[in-house]
């Protein structure tokens, strides 16, 4: 079946630097993509989403980029802060009635 | 604070017990979900309800029985669980089923003795 995967399981950055978390997906029919942040002991927290008719979307300190040609998704976090330390999951959907296919997650660690 | 509330936060039960997990949202969402998450793994979809009707069952064993009493509530009834069922059980909701962000609760940490 289709799956969404991440290139790196862990990412360590210095406070104040920009972070880039990458994700690859396999289904060219996927039309909805979403990023979640999960802190220890909590549920996944919605960060940002993007539909397949867009290639870039910005939020507060975050930007999601979608490259449909190579089936790649990335999350950029500007001026990374210690509070950004968490596991980040990407997920995709392709009109499966709400079924999100999650990637394996990237653990982001921010060094002060 | 999450707008999806799950109770209890922690549950320890024996393999012969019957218990229920509860989930509540007041955002007017019409789709609700149950997920299972093992440590250091992504959430795995179990069930989807849309307009209070079960629309997706991901071949979940019958010892897990979902129920949607109304548009704000979602229950997961547990009976005769196995030790491998120990996990974090997450509830989520969304406005609609398709291409809408799902909002998660903080889960129930379930341990089966």
What features would you describe in this structure?
The complex is a heterodimer of chains A (112) and B (113). By secondary structure, chain A is mainly beta. Helices cover 0% and strands 53% of the residues of chain A. In chain A, strand 6 and strand 7 form a beta hairpin. Chain B has 113 residues and is mostly beta strands. Chain B has no helices and eleven strands. In chain B, the strands form two sheets. In chain B, strands 2, 4, 5, 6, 9, 10 and 11 form a seven-stranded mixed beta sheet that branches. A four-stranded antiparallel beta sheet of chain B has the order 1-3-8-7, with no helix packed on it. Chains A and B meet through strand 4, strand 5 and strand 9 of A and strand 5, strand 9 and strand 10 of B.
Helix content of chain A: under 10%
| Percent of residues in β-strands of chain A | over 45%
Mean pLDDT of chain A: 91
Given the helix and strand composition of chain B, which structural class is it?
mainly beta
How many strands in all of chain B? 11
Number of helices of chain B: 0
Mean pLDDT of chain B: 95
Low-confidence stretches of chain B: none
Write down the Rg of chain B.
13 Å
Shape of chain A: globular
Assembly category: heterodimer
Describe the structure concisely.
The complex is a heterodimer of chains A (112) and B (113). Chain A is mainly beta and 112 residues long. Helix content of chain A is 0%, strand content 53%.
Secondary structure layout plus pairing:
The complex is a heterodimer of chains A (112) and B (113).
Chain A: E1 4-5, E2 10-14, E3 19-25, E4 32-38, E5 45-51, E6 56-58, E7 62-67, E8 72-77, E9 86-93, E10 101-102, E11 106-111
Parallel strand pairs in A: 2-11
Antiparallel strand pairs in A: 1-3, 3-8, 4-5, 4-9, 6-7, 7-8, 9-10, 9-11
Chain B: E1 4-7, E2 10-13, E3 18-25, E4 31-37, E5 44-50, E6 53-57, E7 64-70, E8 73-79, E9 87-94, E10 103-104, E11 108-112
Parallel strand pairs in B: 2-11
Antiparallel strand pairs in B: 1-3, 3-8, 4-5, 4-9, 5-6, 7-8, 9-10, 9-11
